[in-house]
Design brief:
With 333 residues, the chain is α+β, with helices and mostly antiparallel strands. It has eight helices and 17 strands.
């Protein structure tokens, strides 16, 4: 291994350890951000999302799906309630889709969609000490949103535990992203790479729209029903299908975490087989090789997300991949 490669691996391991034991930051400035204003904003958005928007008070938020008439997922993200607007925050590339989809239903409603993706970037601060770093109450609940003005800098801090530990999205003007990163680095905070973020979000089972979630999937198939769906909110677009599926008691397939004994990372679309290696039970949607805490701890394991048929969804169910003619053993996590 070259000196450069060794240094890179060491840095990656240090950032991994920081994210798990203290605090680390990730630049997620390509995330979708849309501000929604107008007197009818709450009632309107409530009618086209799967969670209960009307219950939100300023400073609160929730995870939700935007669904179509058939109950399939058009977009996935978080809605945060401010004093004078709602903010929709989601994975990259969803801005135009969301605005076009919701815009079709605007009639005489007093609602305006203001694209903010190109104006504001986001840093994700995560780890057991994230709240302490940001001088927040340790009891700050998931979905909370706080707006701060610091040195004429407008910062929105949003509690979203994308990686399974306390996490906060910091939305700041895009022109100030490097300034804020430099300030955090000066405090000794490690910055993680896109590669590391992908590994940690796959390990945590957090899906990305356009990768693990598509508009071909029903809301419950994403396996985030508890976080994203309210069954008490009343009518919304797609509600009938989602409620009927809930009454039936199960889906035909769902997103699941998987682990494989391999150093070969399967590409999206790789077929997953049952333990016999002959019956297709699903497909890989995203995957990453695990990283040891130190260079001496080289991993022989791949973690993945995959859409799995119902009979194979149970934890510890053995599964098989075939890559370049080689069988790779794994299991549902």
């Amino acid at each position: 291994m070259s000196a450069a490669s060794h240094a890179s691996s060491k840095t990656l391991s240090e950032a991994l350890n920081a994210a798990r034991t203290s605090v680390a930051i990730f630049d997620l400035s390509d995330r979708t951000q849309i501000e929604i204003t107008g007197a009818d904003r709450v009632r309107f958005l409530h009618s086209f999302t799967s969670n209960d928007i009307k219950r939100l008070k300023p400073g609160q938020g929730c995870e939700t799906f935007v669904t179509n008439l058939k109950g399939k997922v058009v977009a996935h993200g978080f809605v945060f309630c401010g004093e004078n607007s709602l903010w929709l925050d989601g994975t990259p590339g969803q801005q135009q889709t969301i605005i076009s989809h919701l815009g079709k239903f605007l009639l005489v409603d007093d609602v305006q969609f203001i694209p903010r993706t190109d104006e504001r970037g986001e840093l994700f601060v995560t780890g057991p000490l994230a709240a302490q770093l940001l001088q927040l109450d340790e009891g700050t609940s998931a979905g909370s949103s706080i707006e701060r003005e610091t040195d004429s800098l407008s910062i929105h801090i949003r509690r979203v535990d994308l990686l399974g530990s306390p996490g906060f999205l910091m939305s700041v003007p895009l022109s100030q992203i490097e300034r804020v990163k430099l300030s955090l680095s000066g405090l000794g905070v490690a910055e993680g790479t896109h590669e590391l973020f992908e590994l940690l979000r796959i390990e945590a089972g957090y899906p990305v729209y356009g990768v693990d979630i598509t508009d071909d999937q029903l809301a419950q198939e994403v396996a985030r029903t508890k976080q994203c769906v309210s069954f008490n909110k009343g009518c919304y677009l797609g509600q009938e299908t989602i409620a009927r599926l809930d009454a039936l008691g199960h889906t035909n397939r769902e997103l699941r975490r998987l682990q494989f004994d391999s150093t070969v990372v399967p590409i999206a679309g790789t077929v997953i087989y049952d333990v016999s290696g002959t019956i297709e039970v699903g497909v890989i949607t995203s995957a990453a090789i695990e990283i040891g805490q130190t260079q001496a701890q080289a991993s022989q394991s791949v973690v993945a997300l995959g859409m799995i048929k119902r009979p194979s969804c149970q934890p510890e169910t053995p599964v098989i991949l075939t890559i370049d003619g080689k069988r790779i053993s794994g299991k549902v996590r």
